Amino acid sequence: MTTGNPHQKAKGLPKGTTRRPAKELCSECGLCDTPYIHYVKDACAFLNQQIEQLENNTHQRSRDLNSENELYFGVHQQMFSAKKQIPIEGAQWTGIVTTLACKMLTQGYVEGVVCVQNTAEDRFSPKPIIARTPEEVIAARVNKPTLSPNLSILEEIERCGLKRLLVIGVGCQIQALRAIEDKLGLDKLYVLGTPCVDNVTRAGLQKFLETTSRSPSTVVHYEFMQDFRVHFKHEDGSIEKVPFFGLKTNQLKDIFAPSCLSCFDYVNGLADLVVGYMGAPFGWQWIVVRNDTGAQMLDLIKDELDIAPVISKGNRKNAVQQSIPAYDKGVTLPMWAAQVMGLVIERVGPQGLEYAKFSIDSHFTRNYLYVKRNHKEKLEQHVPDFAQKIVKQYQLPKA
């Protein structure tokens, strides 16, 4: 049960305020658009990195740094691969997140679900809501790959009198949420997390689409997939695949948000339950049950899922080490070479959990360099112990 007095908030800071205490590192999580901005100095992951302490608060223990899987994937009771036996039409994958959120509403576990629809004008522009019906949840299916102010709706909780809430979000949002959880006046908070690697502003997304896709205006959604290709789904149902190594890195290095370049919580370590793709075989979803609440949530839909063990194949280390200077220098291969490299790596490269570790290693090394070069005064406090241990496996270029 969360406790606290929701009235103990800052006064005179209306929703929509432009104050951003984290400045350029702000992830636009939405907390500063609410009266809870009073707590942002302590709650914001980019002002006060405290994930180890919050792990203890949430899971009653922190991750075991001597266990490689916990080092990378955080506190968990179990991990496996899954997909819905009957997919939801129009879902980005098979609809596990959407199904669970609907079930929690219809069975009375929660009175509302914090999720993200899109605006009427643009399928990629986020519109956070508190969904009160399954129809509103279903309307939020499909990722919006832009910075989203999910927490901006928190002050609606008190106004609506909600006491049991499900929040769907990514790591930076959930870190801030957990830090103020006891201020929300809820009887029960459930957190369904999704992994998150890099996000962009809406303008940054447009640049990525125009630089990478054959038809930017018809892209419905996309994802960086386990076969080392970006998969773009278009309005006509066709799938366009672009190899990672053919991306115009020299043109795209500046589109990622500084907050994402400073993030070390891709796996959403403070959620109760995480649903993503990065640790699963192609075509499956990766499920991480972190605590008893997460297990209770999953039990609601387990009989609707096909389930398989996680796998781990290949060796990521050389690929990660080679990617560090390549990204640093903005190296872009000719498309024919990128296609060949992609085919080779798909056959012999990392798969399953090893692919997930490849993604974490390559991004954590990049982000460590970013923080060291741009916010050196924050480096020691900002980079968690688990991330430092991961980064130390590799040789980094001199700052």
Computed Rg: 20 Å
What spatial order of strands do you see in the largest sheet?
Answer: 3-2-4-5-9-10-1-11
Number of helices: 15
Quote the beta fraction. Answer: 15-25%
Roughly how much helix do the residues carry, as a percent range? 25-40%
Number of DSSP strands?
13
Notable traits:
399 residues, alpha+beta, 8-stranded mixed sheet, 3-stranded antiparallel sheet, 13 strands, globular, disordered N terminus
Q: Can you describe this structure in just a few lines?
A:
The chain is an alpha+beta fold and 399 residues long. The protein has helices at 40-43, 51-59, 68-73, 96-106, 134-138, 155-160, 171-179, 202-212, 249-252, 292-299, 317-328, 335-348, 353-374, 379-382, 385-391, and strands at 78-84, 112-118, 126-131, 164-169, 188-193, 219-224, 229-234, 239-243, 273-276, 285-289, 305-308, 312-313, 351-352.
Q: Could you characterize what this model shows?
A:
With 399 residues, the chain is an alpha+beta fold. The chain has a domain at 23-197 and 260-312. It is 33% helix and 17% strand. It is built from 15 helices and 13 strands. It has helices at 40-43, 51-59, 68-73, 96-106, 134-138, 155-160, 171-179, 202-212, 249-252, 292-299, 317-328, 335-348, 353-374, 379-382, 385-391; strands at 78-84, 112-118, 126-131, 164-169, 188-193, 219-224, 229-234, 239-243, 273-276, 285-289, 305-308, 312-313, 351-352. The chain has an 8-stranded mixed beta sheet. Strands 6-7-8 form a 3-stranded antiparallel beta sheet. The protein has a two-stranded antiparallel sheet with strand order 12-13. A hairpin with a 4-residue loop joins strand 7 (229-234) and strand 8 (239-243). The model is unreliable at 1-17 (pLDDT under 50).
